[in-house]
Structures are given as structure tokens and as C-alpha cells.
Specification:
0% strand; elongated; 11 helices; mainly alpha
Length: 239
């Protein structure tokens, strides 16, 4: 009969699994690798998950959920069917791809302050990506080994977000509120990939090994990136 196990130990399993899957990719990662990262015996993992597939599924579902209610009611977690994992990924990507401020902006007939509107959209996008940082890194890192995930993430969610960003940019450029920097599709991709790097990927990037280098705080990165992007595209008002 499945039993409850301490939440903090389950969190350690998730943290170790996410770290190893991100470092090695889905195909190369073995249960023994995750156990070694925890400093535990391989058999310990089977108290929490039934297999590598269950471990990967659990990492996707729970690693970015800090609330206690997100812990499964009973352990060990059984091996999911592949379609169950993909269905969860699809639903999460669809849910997080909805940026309400962006949807509201596209429905807006009049825009009095495009800089404030654009800032809100980019801040909201940054926050969604940052909240799901490890989940998104897992998807990105595993896409090469897991073509079905690649289709959902790279072609589906990422492509859909780029399309709606491009629609927004075209509309505000047409209204004369944003600067046309050339290809609008390239502009939308530059916006998204800049924010993805700072909200997600930079946390796995080696810091510059230079004298006087310092770690950039999340708040500083968020504020600087958004303000720079807004200033680069919002037209200055004529006095």
C-alpha cells in the first residue's frame, strides 16, 4: 500500500532529479546518477518513484511548485503512460502561454500610455517564465531526446507566444506607438529570447570569471531587461 513520506525528502529527490536531467538530458540520465547527486543509495529513489519515467514526470510536475499542497498524496509514484506526461506538459504550456495583459492589450481600442502597457506585458512574461524556470529548462534540455516534447515546446507553446507577440508589435507599430526595427518576426523573437535567457537560462550559465564580477540579482535583471527593451521600441513623444 502506498505510504506518505516526508515532503522535504521528496523535494530533495525532485531537486536532484531536475539538476541531473538538465545537466545530462533525458536519455543519458540514469536513476543511479540522481541517487549519486543526492548522496543516497539508488534504492532510496524507489521509495519515491517507480522508474526513471516516473522521476522525470514528477520533476516536470512538482519541481517549480513550492506549496505543500503540490506534494503527491502517496508514494512511490507509479510509472505514467507516455501520453499522460505529454498531456500534462501540453496543459501547463497552454496555461502559462496565456499572458492576460497581452490579451487585454490586443483587445484595447485606445492606448494612452504604450510604455506602461508594454512594460506590464514584458514584466508579466518575465514572471511567468521565472516561476517555471526549472520546468522550462527541463523541457528545453530534453527536447532533443524526446521529440514529442520538442513538438509541444518548440513548435507549439513557443511558436504560439511568438505569434501573439508579433501581432501585438504589428498593431502598435501601425498605430505609430512602437518603432519598426525591421522584420517584426525577428523583433518578437529577440524580445522573447532575451527574456527567456535572463529569466531562465542564465541560472545555468557560468558567471564571468573576471575580477570584480558579481552575481546579478533577479530583481535587477528583471527591471533592467524590461526597461531596456521598452526604451528600445517605444517612440518618444514629441514635446
Amino acid at each position: 500500500m502506498p505510504r506518505r513520506r516526508p515532503n522535504d525528502k521528496f523535494r530533495q529527490v525532485l531537486d536532484a532529479a531536475a539538476a541531473v536531467f538538465i545537466e545530462q538530458g533525458y536519455r543519458r540520465t540514469q536513476m543511479a546518477d540522481v541517487a549519486a547527486a543526492m548522496g543516497a543509495a539508488k534504492g532510496t529513489l524507489y521509495l519515491y518513484v517507480a522508474s526513471k519515467e516516473a522521476l522525470f514526470d514528477a520533476a516536470l510536475r512538482y519541481v517549480d511548485n513550492a506549496d505543500a499542497d503540490s506534494t503527491p498524496p502517496s508514494l512511490p509514484l507509479p510509472t505514467p503512460r507516455p501520453e499522460e506526461t505529454l498531456a500534462y506538459v501540453r496543459s501547463e504550456l497552454e496555461r502559462n502561454a496565456e499572458i492576460p495583459s497581452l490579451t487585454d492589450a490586443l483587445a484595447r481600442r485606445q492606448v494612452r500610455d504604450v510604455a506602461a502597457e508594454f512594460s506590464t506585458i514584458l514584466f508579466d512574461l518575465y514572471d511567468v517564465l521565472a516561476r517555471n524556470r526549472r520546468r522550462l529548462k527541463l523541457l528545453d534540455r530534453s527536447a532533443r531526446d524526446y521529440p514529442e516534447i520538442a513538438a509541444l515546446w518548440l513548435e507549439g507553446a513557443r511558436g504560439g507566444l511568438l505569434a501573439i507577440l508579433e501581432t501585438y508589435l504589428k498593431d502598435r507599430i501601425r498605430r505609430g506607438q512602437l518603432v519598426s526595427a525591421g522584420d517584426v518576426g525577428v523583433t518578437a523573437r529577440l524580445l522573447l529570447e532575451t527574456i527567456v535567457f535572463w529569466a531562465v537560462h542564465r541560472h545555468w550559465d557560468l558567471p564571468p570569471a573576471t575580477a570584480g564580477s558579481r552575481e546579478v540579482s533577479e530583481g535587477s535583471a528583471r527591471e533592467t531587461v524590461v526597461r531596456l527593451l521598452v526604451r528600445s521600441l517605444v517612440k518618444e513623444r514629441k514635446p
